[in-house]
Design a protein that fits this description.
Blueprint: E1 13-19, H1 35-59, H2 77-89, H3 100-116, E2 120-121, E3 135-143, H4 146-155, E4 170-178, E5 187-193, H5 203-222, E6 230-236, H6 244-252, E7 259-267, E8 274-277
Parallel strand pairs: 1-7, 2-3, 5-6, 5-7
Antiparallel strand pairs: 1-8, 3-4, 4-6
Helix pairs in contact: 1-5, 2-5
Length: about 280
């Protein structure tokens, strides 16, 4: 395992995690494949992601932990099955940015936290970073300027004639915050994108990471675990579109300057060595 950490102004540590496979790039395996091995691999990836989250948070000394129910049971069979269920739900269909399915996925993730997990839903105009509520979820919608939209497509190598015509190109980020016991110590941002390539169902890139984050955040609330630092879970859109969702978050989130650590999970492939690269 290789670690490369960067320091850049207010962001002290950035970790970019890739599960790399020389063969399959994202998407669901071929229908003819036996999914038994795929399920086993998912559980391994899920266990690795959650273990890394737990270890990194501890190492960074953000663990002013209060847990009256004992140690969190993140790796039970029930939790794995729940994560696998949501990973499959997030990869039922192609969901590139600006598509109807991509928009509905943002709503589904938002509803998961606000309805199923009991997180307080905040209006998009509210400043989530200063909310006194311990568990909050917020959906931020951004409409791109036509010039901005065209410029990005050209940067991706598209000719004018090949750029899709969309009247109002919009993207959505879902932001979950778990308030820490001492917000002045800075926040930890845990992030993964949920959009897919146009030709991929996106199970490995990046539904596994998004589903693991969903389960991790849910069980922090269920097990009543609190940390000294605020924890922010960003489910970003438009990663395949010049990481525009992450860029919009960085430019508009009112508590961005308080973020001290970033963990960005990017899952690719079904097997191979685990490599940690710089972002």
């Amino acid at each position: 395992m290789r670690y490369i950490c960067l320091q850049n102004n207010s962001i002290q540590v950035i970790i970019y995690i890739i599960f790399y496979d020389d063969g399959v790039y994202g998407g669901f395996p071929q229908d003819s494949m036996d999914f038994t091995e795929e399920i086993k691999m998912f559980k391994k990836l899920y266990a690795i992601i959650l273990s890394l989250l737990a270890v990194v948070l501890f190492v960074f000394s953000v663990t002013d932990i209060t847990n009256k129910n004992g140690a969190p049971k993140y790796l039970t069979q029930e939790v794995e099955e729940d994560a696998l269920y949501y990973a499959n739900r997030l990869s039922l269909d192609f969901h590139p940015v600006f598509s109807a399915r991509d928009n509905s996925m943002a709503t589904e993730i938002y509803n998961y936290f606000s309805s199923s997990c009991g997180f307080s839903a905040l209006d998009s105009s509210e400043n989530q970073a200063v909310s006194n509520k311990t568990y909050t979820v917020q959906k931020q919608t951004y409409t791109l300027l036509n010039s901005e939209y065209i410029e990005i497509y050209k940067a991706l190598g598209y000719e004018d004639k090949d750029i899709p015509v969309i009247s109002e190109p919009t993207l959505n980020n879902v932001i979950v915050r778990i308030k820490g016991s001492d917000s002045s110590t800075g926040a930890v941002l845990i992030t993964a994108h949920y959009d897919s390539e146009e030709s991929s169902l996106g199970l490995y890139d990046n539904a596994i990471a998004a589903a693991s984050m969903m389960e991790f955040a849910k069980h922090l609330k269920t097990d009543k675990i609190t940390y000294k630092n605020d924890l922010i879970f960003l489910f970003s859109d438009a990663n395949q579109f010049h990481q525009m969702g992450a860029k919009k978050f960085a430019a508009s989130y009112q508590g961005y300057e308080n973020i001290k650590y970033v963990l960005n999970f990017q899952s690719i492939g079904t097997e191979g060595n685990l490599t940690v690269l710089e972002s």
